Amino acid sequence: MRLVLFGATGFAGSRIAKEALSRGHEVVGVARDVSPLTEGEGLSARAGTIHDEAFVLEVTRGADALLIATPGRPQEDGRKLLDAVPALAAAARANGVRIGIVGGAASLKVSADGPRLLDTPEFPEAYKVEAGSHAEVLDALREVPEDVDWFYVSPAAVFGAHAPGERTGKYRTTDEVLLTDTMGDSAIGGEDYAIAFVDEIEAPAHRRARFGVAY
């Protein structure tokens, strides 16, 4: 497959790119600064942004999937991922590509009838802007036209460069409830998250849906 990956130099994006390349897929890595990317062996680099509608339309021609691994919160220019959803959906419709989003954990519920993690008193104030922004993206995806196929993968509560983890090749999935282990912890390593993400690209099981992954 030909995969166009925005945010290819970040924590999640770089691991998704590596996993996809290891399976023989072609990856077009997109970032504002592509200097960290080494082209070759299936990887090509394009400098660009999700907020350039003409660029998104052009770079996704002939692609199988449009993957987004960028922050949800407002960036230096004040724009956030939510603002790009209409253009992403338009490019997906025009070019027949599937959208895949690296999402957030905070929009998952803490229990079947409980609140979202974001809405619990314990949720850290410092993360609310990013978490809330990603929750808005999920809501917006659910409103795009029915002929736009997408998936949104929420990681576990502990996920990121501060806790990269080690590759195990194992993961569990959930629909709307945060997964925890027998000790009550919710975590997923970067490489195992990437495995789950690329598995969904290769064998779609969550069309126009969010799912979560954790150990």
List the main descriptive attributes of the protein structure presented here.
215 residues; alpha/beta; eight-stranded mixed beta sheet; globular
Shape: globular
Q: Portion of residues in helices? A: 25-40%
Distance between the termini: 28 Å
Can you write the helix and strand succession as a string?
A: EHEEHEHEHEEHE
User: Tally the helices: what do you get?
Assistant: 5
- Oligomer designation: single chain
Q: Which CATH-level-2 architecture? A: 3-Layer(aba) Sandwich
**Average of the residue pLDDT scores:** 96
Number of domains: 1
Domain NAD(P)-binding: 7-176
Protein name: NAD(P)-dependent oxidoreductase
Pfam families: NAD_binding_10
Organism: Streptomonospora arabica
Question: Please, could you describe this protein's structure?
Answer:
It is a single chain. Helix 1 packs across helix 5 (190-202), helix 2 (53-59) packs across helix 3 and helix 3 packs parallel to helix 4 (128-141). The radius of gyration is 16 Å and the shape is globular. The protein is built from five helices and eight strands, in the order E-H-E-E-H-E-H-E-H-E-E-H-E. It has a single domain (2-214), classed as NAD(P)-binding Rossmann-like Domain (Rossmann fold, 3-Layer(aba) Sandwich). Helices cover 28% and strands 18% of the residues. It has 215 residues and is of the alpha/beta class.
